[in-house]
Amino acid sequence: MAQLWGGRFTKETDQLVYNFNASITFDRKFYRQDIEGSIAHVKMLGKQGILTGQETEDIIRTLKQIREDVESGKLEITSEYEDIHSFVEANLIERLGDTGKKLHTGRSRNDQVALDMRLYTREELLATDTLLKELLTTILNLMEAHTETIMPGFTHLQKAQPITLAHHLGAYFEMFKRDRLRLHDIYERMNYCPLGSGALAGTTYPLDREYTAELLGFYGPTLNSMDGVSDRDYLLEFLSACATIMMHLSRFSEEIIIWNSNEYQFVEIDDAYSTGSSIMPQKKNPDIAELVRGKTGRVYGALMSLLTTMKGLPLAYNKDMQEDKELSFDAMDTVKGCIALFNGMLATMRFQTENMRRSASRGFTNATDAADYLVNHGVPFRDAHGIVGRIVLYCLEKNIAIEDMSLAELQAISPVFEEDIYDAISMETCVNKRLTVGAPGKAAMEQVISLEKKYLETDWH
Questions:
Q1: Assigned domain for 83 exists
Q2: Are 444 and 438 in contact (CB under 8 A)?
Q3: Which of 305, 338, 353 is the last residue of a domain?
Q4: Is the pLDDT of residue 413 over 80?
Q5: Residues 59-70: tens digit of each pLDDT
Q6: Does some domain include residue 77?
Q7: Cis omega (within 30 of 0) on the bond before 316?
Q8: 92 closest CA partner among 30, 35, 18
């Protein structure tokens, strides 16, 4: 078909070149944003007297019809068109004739695509935030239910000190809460309208850019037309936030995979979120957790791809920037899908609380508290550290926990120990005497849970 820009050219574009240049196969994804932006543009043109009232009415009505026809399947977006902008405008002209040709007055495809991508990214950002809030709600519900579920805390994947499941899950609550804060910050920076920037130098038409921005829900217009058409910082920031979200999901997935192993048996994943083996009938694999972990790489890839694309581009618009779409669309869909599936897996997961407690006990996670007991009875810390090290060796030889030792056995290593040592190193004591803000003690956790509930009751959009 004849191109919207064909007047300058004397011969048809080679088909391979056309296919390489075209973006309709992927930018069709934001037909709604393209039509929404066009409607706002036309309303502004009518308000400014650049279009007549009748022309404005006819174009807006027809644009809405095109949108309805696409959504109903009556009108198909095909590769006959170079891009989504050409598709919309060509169909408008076909239905309205010369009036349809006035749609593009005071506008370039450069500021049009910049607007479409910004509108689409803003919508995806808000959808991602909503899913994160749902995940945070699931985590908080589990935290409330498990303030007394004792488990080992780890460093270097070695059992370190006893904590609660609520405390462990609370760490991920903080991560995903920060992810939401990042999304909010990005929204605040990106919510300005590039429409009216023209190709790069604005336009001679008396556009009301503030009005267009208001119609589209932006805080105002972008303040430099060259930056308006060439800025993709907001998309880089969103992809960076998506990469961080996936990193958090991947860390959580890795722990669930470990917890699900035969050696740990801390969790049982619901059948709906796991699969079996084609050959080994005993297997129950944590597929969703593994896929989330695996898909993190493709989101990282989208970020690195766009950073690389943008790093050498002079002002203003360059065709390289068409590469901002395919991988970004994939990353956005991937992140949303991973959050939703992870949330479902977590909400239906069964925690093996007895196994968790037994693991904390058998892992000498109360060794630090035994050393603290000695310090509180006048033993220098370095000496206490050595005494408890000998106790751990003794327990390993006997295959018992510290609390399983008799008082005589303890006193044989250090006469400082008294009967109250057993209360001092009980798992409940070890956890609940840690009451500083952010610690795993029940009272401290309940305080944090109360704060997190208040946080979830408010929203920024």
A1: yes
A2: yes
A3: 353
A4: yes
A5: 999 999 999 999
A6: yes
A7: yes
A8: 35
pLDDT in tens, 260-319: 999 999 999 999 998 766 566 566 899 999 999 999 999 999 999 999 999 999 999 999
What is the chain's length?
Answer: 461
Indicate if 289 and 436 belong to the same structural domain.
Answer: no
Q: Say if CB 453 and CB 140 are below 8 A apart.
A: yes
- Provide the CATH number for the domain around residue 338: 1.20.200.10
Q: How many domains does the chain have?
A: 3
Instruction: Look at residue 1 and tell me if it is in a domain.
Output: no
**Domain final residue, candidates 308, 331, 353:** 353
List, by residue number, the catalytic residues. Answer: 156, 277
**Does one domain contain both 195 and 289?**
yes
Q: pTM score, two decimals?
A: 0.92
Name 449's bridge partners. none
Which domain does 100 fall in, by range? Answer: 6-105
CA gap 37, 107 in Å, rounded = 11
**For 159, phi and psi rounded to 5 degrees?**
-60, 130
pLDDT band at 18 (very low <50, low <70, confident <90, very high): confident
Burial 120-159 (b: 16+ CB within 10 A, else e): bbbebbeebbebbeebbebbbebbeebbebbbbbbeeeeb
Q: Which of 126, 119, 121, 122 has the alpha carbon at shortest distance from 212?
A: 119
Instruction: Note whether residue 347 is domain-resident.
Output: yes
Across 240-261, b (16+ Cβ under 10 Å) vs e yields: bbbbbbbebbbebbebbbbbbe
